[in-house]
């Protein structure tokens, strides 16, 4: 009879491990995570940040167990959630997200497994969980004894829970515990990264957060038994968002962290480019996510890389990190350029092309070797729900702070130029660099548009068409439309997705779990437009059944109008169809007409 063992964790203390969990931990898939650092090479900046995906996985299992017990789940569901949390990071590559960018930037390197192209670490995780553990005889037997089902069926379900892909809406809450807006994964990595880096990310009260979670309509939501506990639930969620925002600004977008990340990625891509056999490249990339650990990755570059890659690797090993010559962030970029770079940064091929061409032009102008890193914050929480007096609301409709934090996360962008030598910063004037960035980014956006539709530009065009249709000039005043709520935008976009010639431009998936048509990605895109300064979001309070809630109303800014005008020429046919639709349904669009001096609107 196998016994329960205990491990000791610096954050959570004693963590009990069941016999089946112990078997899983002993597999090569889990043991590989012992030698993959959670934050890649961030320990160059934060010496204590040498914690691993392995300890994070065990910590995530512990937090998932806390949540599952707090929600009152049955024993079987608790065991499933624990195992899914334990295995949720198995598909991470060596050096974690630093190397995962290779797939985004070079999609032709992505392996095809069982007819499916694997494009991110979550897909690798699903494949590993669903297929690898059934071949361990002791594990398969323990699963059958403990759960009474075939191991193949069991690990298929676990793979979906671990990556948030539950098809059965009745079990959606299981996936939310491990992979949701407020989940065990985020709680543990924020606490653990703060602990090991020494960077304070704010107070993350795990017990308060866990106690604030409840089940409603088979979903995990925030809630409380009275007004005070409802307020504490909001405060707990706000603390998570504060920590996430600080995590990006203090750790991920630290210039030295970005520099070493750019160095490693450059060394790896140079090494892959040297290999002539494409099938060998795809095999190696697959092994980055399934077999390699951090040491294996360094050995791969050291043995197969060209002199340029080996030199970069040696610099990393010796701590001779490339110096930051210039750094642009959201505060130093105009809204239109900020939006353009944000769009490029979210399309890996274009991002790689931008960085390569920017390097080429800077080398020609300044005659010095440089590296570029363009990075944006991702993973914006999109569907956190809270219960007030028995009714569900979005967290962002109850907390102006939460809404502002989502905007702050969406706004974060960092473009760094690095050099291996001590550069004369005076040689690089901001004006010349901005001019180069504007020219290059404009060219690349045209390239992306030729390859695929940009859904976020579809939303930008919708705002621009509504502004053009409804706005009027009157003497020195401009009368512009203010769209009354975001659900109106959801309804309009959902109708546009059903039109034959617009379904690709507005390629959004909607669901009605909240009682109306809602799209996670559409919410995120609207928040990005607001964060970039192209759309203004006005706060309005309203009374609903004696409860004062807030809603957001939307106005196109002058920068947004100019940006819409600049891209309209690429979408002339789509613009006409959008406008025709708006004209036919203009009386159904809730809006207020706002009068503003033209001179003020132009500022």
Write a short abstract of this structure.
The chain is of the alpha+beta class and 603 residues long. The chain contains 27 helices and 16 strands.
Mind explaining what this structure looks like?
Among the domains are: 5-198, Hypothetical protein af1432 (Orthogonal Bundle); 455-602, Arc Repressor Mutant, subunit A. It is 55% helix and 15% strand. The strands form seven sheets. It has a three-stranded antiparallel beta sheet with strand order 7-11-8, sandwiched between helices. Strands 12-13-16 form a three-stranded antiparallel beta sheet. Helix 4 crosses helix 8 and helix 13 (255-274) runs antiparallel to helix 16 (307-317). The longest helix is centred in the middle third of the chain and has 26 residues, at 227-252. The mean pLDDT is 90.
């Amino acid at each position: 009879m196998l016994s329960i063992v205990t491990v000791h964790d610096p954050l959570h203390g004693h963590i009990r491990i069941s016999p089946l969990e112990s078997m899983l931990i002993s597999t090569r898939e889990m043991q590989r995570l012992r030698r993959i650092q959670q934050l890649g090479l961030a320990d160059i900046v934060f010496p204590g940040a040498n914690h691993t995906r392995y300890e994070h996985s065990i910590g995530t299992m512990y937090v998932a167990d806390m949540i599952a017990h707090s929600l009152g789940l049955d024993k079987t569901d608790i065991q499933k959630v624990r195992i899914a949390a334990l295995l949720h990071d198995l598909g991470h590559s060596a050096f974690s997200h630093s190397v995962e960018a290779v797939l985004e930037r070079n999609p032709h390197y992505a392996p095809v497994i069982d007819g499916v192209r694997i494009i991110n670490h979550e897909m690798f995780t699903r494949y590993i969980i669903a297929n690898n553990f059934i071949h361990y005889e002791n594990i398969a037997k323990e699963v059958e004894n403990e759960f009474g089902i075939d191991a193949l069926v069991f690990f298929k379900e676990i793979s979906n829970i671990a990556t948030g892909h539950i098809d059965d809406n009745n079990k959606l809450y299981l996936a939310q515990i491990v992979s949701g807006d407020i989940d065990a994964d985020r709680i543990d990595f924020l606490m653990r990264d703060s602990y090991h880096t020494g960077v304070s990310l704010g107070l993350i009260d795990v017990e308060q957060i866990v106690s604030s979670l409840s089940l409603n309509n088979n979903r995990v939501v925030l809630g409380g038994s009275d007004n005070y506990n409802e307020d504490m639930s909001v405060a707990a969620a706000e603390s998570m968002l504060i920590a996430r925002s600080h995590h990006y600004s203090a750790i991920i977008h630290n210039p030295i962290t970005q520099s070493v990340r750019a160095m490693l990625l450059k060394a790896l891509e140079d090494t892959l480019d040297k290999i002539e056999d494409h099938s060998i490249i795809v095999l190696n990339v697959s092994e980055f996510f399934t077999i390699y650990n951090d040491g294996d990755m360094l050995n791969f570059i050291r043995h197969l890389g060209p002199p340029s890659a080996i030199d970069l690797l040696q610099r990393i090993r010796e701590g001779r990190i490339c110096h930051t010559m210039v750094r642009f962030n959201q505060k130093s970029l105009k809204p239109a350029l900020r939006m353009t770079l944000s769009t490029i940064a979210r399309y890996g091929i274009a991002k790689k092309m931008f960085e390569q061409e920017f390097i080429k032009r800077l080398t020609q102008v300044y005659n010095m070797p440089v590296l570029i890193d363009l990075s944006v914050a991702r993973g914006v929480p999109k569907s956190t729900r809270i219960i007030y007096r028995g009714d569900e609301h979005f967290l962002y409709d109850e907390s102006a702070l939460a809404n502002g934090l989502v905007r702050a996360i969406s706004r974060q962008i960092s473009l760094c130029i690095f050099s291996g030598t001590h550069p004369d910063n005076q040689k690089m004037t901001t004006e010349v660099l901005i001019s180069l960035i504007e020219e290059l980014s404009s060219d690349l956006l045209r390239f992306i548009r030729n390859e695929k539709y940009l859904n976020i530009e579809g939303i930008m065009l919708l705002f621009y068409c509504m502004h053009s249709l409804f706005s009027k000039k009157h003497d020195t005043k401009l009368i512009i439309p203010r769209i009354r709520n975001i659900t109106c935008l959801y309804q309009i976009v959902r109708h546009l997705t059903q039109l034959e010639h617009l379904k690709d431009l507005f390629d959004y998936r909607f669901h009605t779990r909240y009682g109306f048509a809602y799209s996670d990605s559409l919410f995120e895109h609207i928040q990005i437009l607001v964060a970039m300064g192209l759309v203004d979001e006005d706060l309005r309070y309203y009374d609903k059944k004696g409860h004062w809630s807030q809603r957001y109303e939307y106005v196109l800014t002058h920068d947004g109008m100019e940006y819409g005008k600049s891209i309209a020429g690429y979408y002339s046919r789509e613009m006409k169809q959008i406008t025709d639709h708006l004209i036919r349904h203009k009386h159904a669009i809730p809006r207020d007409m706002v009068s503003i001096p033209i001179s003020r609107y132009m500022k």
